[in-house]
Amino acid sequence: KDTSPQWMVTLDPQLSLGQKWMVFAEAYGMWQKGKQPQWVLDSGFGYLLSPSAMIDVMGGKGLSAAAPDYFIAMGL
Question: What's the CA gap between 42 and 59, in Å, rounded?
Answer without folding.
Answer: 6
